[in-house]
Input
Amino acid sequence: MKAYRKSQNLTTSQDASFGSNRVVNKDNKRVITVGLVGNPNCGKTSLFNKLSGSQGSTGNYPRVTVEIQESRIEYKGVEIRIKDLPGIYSLTSTSLEERIGRDYLHSEEADVLLNILDAGNLDRSLFFTTQLLEMGQATVYVLNMIDEANKKGIRIDNKDLSSMLNGPVLETNAKLGVGMDAVLDAVIEMADKPHDEIHPITLPYDSHLEEAITKVQDLIIKLHPGQMDQHQSRWLSLKLLEGDDELLRREGEHSHLIELVRRARYDLSHSHGESCDSMFANTRYGFIHGLLLEVRTVADCPDKRMQITRSIDQIILHRLLGLPIFVGLMWMMFESTFTLGAYPANWIDHGVRALSAQAGDLLPHGLLRDLLMDGIIMGIGAVVVFLPYILILFFFIAMFSETGYLARTSFLLDRIMHIFGLHGKAFIPLVMGFGCNVPAIMATRTIESPRARLVAVLINPFMSCSQRLPAFILLSGAFFPDNAGQMIFIMYMISIATAMGAAVFLSKLVIRGGTESFVMELPPYRLPTLGSIITHIGTRAYDFVRMVGGVIVVGSITIWFLQQFPRDITYSVNYETAIAQAQTIADAAQSKLAVTELNNKKEQERMENSYLGMIGQSITPIFSIQGFGWKDSVAILSGIFAKEVVVASYGVLYGQDNSSETGSAGLRNAISQAMTPISAFALMVFLLLYSPCLSTIAAIKREAGWSWAGFSIIFSLTLAWTFSTVIVLVGGLFF
Ligand code: GDP
Ligand code: MG
Output
């Protein structure tokens, strides 16, 4: 085969110390010719450009290079001539571009071949390599796109691969030019290698193939006496049997040989029931498979992962088990949120109380001290206590979304969602609504059908956002201390049920139209990384802190002012004299009790006559059936601005009632005496469903326009009022 070599203006000299052909240019510099070979789109041209500093055209689609480009560089005193060849999938194929590459290989012009492999697609890239291996040319293997491979979790043992391919293996990123010097060093080293160290690798073919190969090989040796060694004749035999038309043409004069090859191919395909070409291909793929099993580890092997994914899905997406599992997971989420969250919440509570006491000691008595202690600290403190609950809840939601379970829920619930006139795709925005309705409403943009989108937008506010959670925790802790977790779970169930019911109502009566089917991608399950979970939760914590610093401070101060003024109130009783009288009671304990009671009454009357009291009382009649007091009315009103202010309002409103007991325990106690548990449950449902907050209203307006935003407010207020009324009326029958 060396006979095919063209020496193209180069003088060839044998040099014992190098063992290979040593070529020099006119400046007496050593010249090494390098050919870049490999599949289309594996980065040959990129590597060529990076090695040579020139700008060929690269593109992320196969077959950009059609002609051979050459570039000469000097590296460590050696002139290296690099040739960029068109991509080749297989040496036996017949397309024009592939022929150019094949002819170049046959010419054996290159001193060293650089076989570029797509490290992320080794199965395919190595097919060409198996053909190259049989040629026995000096080859350096380049695992290009190593960055992408690593991203896919692929690790390759270069040393093992190198010994199996019998040539150096290097990793590069041709896009960024990483690993270029190592490639050039390996090229020079390879060129220096003695010839007898470079030999072809024999692939183990099927025994029938081997028989045919030997037969053809024997004839070739007879026809080319003394011209070919064992390797060369075997290679030619292989190629002829594999159907290399170029070599068949070259051997055209040996009709005997051509006939033998044709017969052998025919017989093999008949006895095996598959073409001779695919028998060769099978052996090559088998070789690659075995090779890769040895040298490649995929951290998270896609195939194995898909298998695991499939088995998990058989359970999780089971027709009967799927939904109970889903409900079970949700229940577990809320139950553990409440039980686990209670500990850190307690620590924060203590911290807030200590801070408040500190501030109280430092500041002189007066309006400013009251503002700081009863307004700002009480308001913020009442809300900050709930940070742990929110973080734990979001830990679970992050886990569900990172593992791939959340995507399944869309699939799981799609059938059910359709019953409600909703799209499976509406589920993710709905779950996002548990966080905040504003981004969730924006996320409905993934739903193509405008009708289905509008429904998804309008029902989103019924999904209980995390800002509503503190109010539920406060109220269920106060009224249902033994079943607080379950109560919160129930609230979320009501939230979902209402959203679904509203969807049916809207799609059947208000926004008509058909539903269309869709394809849901189910990503493979993966273990969530610590980083992604931390990012998820961190964002929440940050949002929360920002919110506390902004809207809650403003809300608390506003409410505090409204309940402090006007100051000149005419009381129904002269409390001063009444208290003085109570102090004269002989029994000390009784006297103290009477004084406290009078003080509380006075405070109560003062607040009822404050601006806040007036506002609250003016709307309280609406809630006469439910049994909500004026403080509840105030909290409800404040929640229209932002849901998180509800608890802050309670913090400020009840702050003064309990001079002895402050903090969240005191708040719970005070509230628990204000109404019956049935009313409290009705209040929770009301707070869950009534008007969206201002930001959400704005989001609805942006997505659907003012009239739908107005519709949303009226619709939700009506629902909330009706539901809470029904709860109190029905509950009254039983309790
Ligand atoms: P060729 O067909 O073998 O010549 O491949 P090209 O050099 O045209 O490259 C194909 C695409 O792969 C281009 O979009 C390159 O930017 C990109 N590419 C090449 N090498 C790398 C690499 O190491 N890493 C990454 N991420 N992309 C690469
Ligand atoms: Mg190219």
Observations:
- The first strand starts at residue 11 and ends at 14.
- The domain at 207-298 is CATH 1.10.287.1770 (Helix Hairpins).
- Residues 40-46, 58-60, 64-65, 87, 144-145, 147-148, 173-175 surround guanosine-5'-diphosphate (ligand 1) (CB under 6 Å).
- Residues 686 and 722 are 9 Å apart (CA to CA).
